[in-house]
Fold this sequence. Notes:
Elements: E1 3-7, H1 12-23, E2 27-32, H2 49-55, E3 60-64, H3 72-77, E4 82-85, H4 92-97, H5 99-119, E5 125-131, E6 144-146, E7 151-153, H6 174-193, E8 197-202, E9 204-206, H7 218-228, E10 232-235, E11 241-246, H8 247-260, E12 264-269, E13 276-278, H9 279-290, E14 296-299, E15 308-309, H10 314-320, H11 328-341
Parallel strand pairs: 1-2, 1-4, 2-3, 4-5, 5-8, 8-12, 9-11, 10-14, 11-15
Antiparallel strand pairs: 6-7, 11-13
Helix pairs in contact: 1-2, 1-8, 5-6, 7-9, 7-11, 9-11
Bound molecules: nicotinamide-adenine-dinucleotide (NAD).
Nicotinamide-adenine-dinucleotide binds at residues 8, 10-14, 31-36, 66-68, 86-90, 105, 109, 129, 131, 179, 202, 204-205, 217.
Amino acid sequence: MARIVVTGGAGFIGSHAAESFAARGYSVVVVDNLSRGRLLRREDPNANFNWDYLGRISNVERIRADIRDPGVMDLALRDADAVLHAAAQTAVTTSTVDPETDFLSNALGTFRVLEAARLSPRRPTVLYCSTNKVYGANVNRVPLQEAKDRYLFAGEYERGIPEDYGIDLCEHTPYGCSKLAGDLYAQDYGHLYGLRVGVFRMSCIYGTRQFGMEDQGWVAWFVLASIVGAPLTLFGDGRQVRDLLWVDDLIRAYELFLERGPQVGVYNMGGGPGNTLSLLELLELLRGHLGRPIRCAYGPWRPSDQKVYISSIEKARRELGWEPVVSPTEGVARLTQWAMAHRGLFSHLAA
Ligand SMILES: NC(=O)c1ccc[n+]([C@@H]2O[C@H](COP(=O)([O-])OP(=O)(O)OC[C@H]3O[C@@H](n4cnc5c(N)ncnc54)[C@H](O)[C@@H]3O)[C@@H](O)[C@H]2O)c1
């Protein structure tokens, strides 16, 4: 039985990936230090939800450990065929108030995972969860068109940002820098040491079991907060647009890479130009699902906010034969249904 290690498996993406790999017959080992609950310096009562969820799945072994601890990843990867590295400090806002923790988790943590893969006799394939934030404020140089409820990219990037778009000579935020360090190291471990490496620069991934908050996981946050009537703030004018990717579609891309990806591949991963939503459009969908208006205030633009981000997904389509299948309308309906069925988990948000 092939063996795959998932770092950050107690998190949103890692737990879905672990479940899916187990269902496909992998023996899965999850490594997580359960630090998500400390995000934004407040306790999240659902911090261990995905960890407990995986505990009920056979073929999934859980190791509570920090990826930075010397020896932890060496041991985990000694007999692994692949590793999905999803563990990270994931909030941009936290990275600006505590850049050291962000750097240590994301840059040093990724380095430890890569070193363990390099030194493992099995030479596991590395799948690295990167981010669109590697393109930093360069994205804000794309000319925009304005419509009533949304901004749009204009000109040559109408079909989205490609993988060879500029990554430097601009601001990034500490999170963008630490994830970019991991992204470049991962590529180099592929080129220099011959590891098989897939780098996935993800934009907005959403799905069930995502415990979104104001600073991270905005689609889930809007859905959960609207259901329990927690106060919502739109920073800016609400016309900001993202390409949305349902988590199962993302995991299919990982699986396709393992099956047929090249030795080193870098892919922008989002819903692409066919699957975008603005904040205002999301609120409109939610009004429809809940049958009532959503309480919402406006706040000032946040410094690192991008008005539009849309991934070009042509490369993944071409090299992996991958295509997103869940539209934002369908995905938001599924997420709303799940959150309604689990609304008791979110009642604290209304406080
Ligand atoms: N969700 C998105 O839309 C999105 C977009 C772009 C990139 N990403 C990247 O995808 C990955 C997964 O994101 P997510 O949304 O599932 O986040 P998440 O916060 O739900 O999961 C991250 C997990 O990593 C764990 N972790 C953090 N530091 C650790 C450490 N030092 N040792 C062990 N475990 C540690 C946390 O406890 C948490 O369970 C991250 O690398 C993130 O940067 C996510």
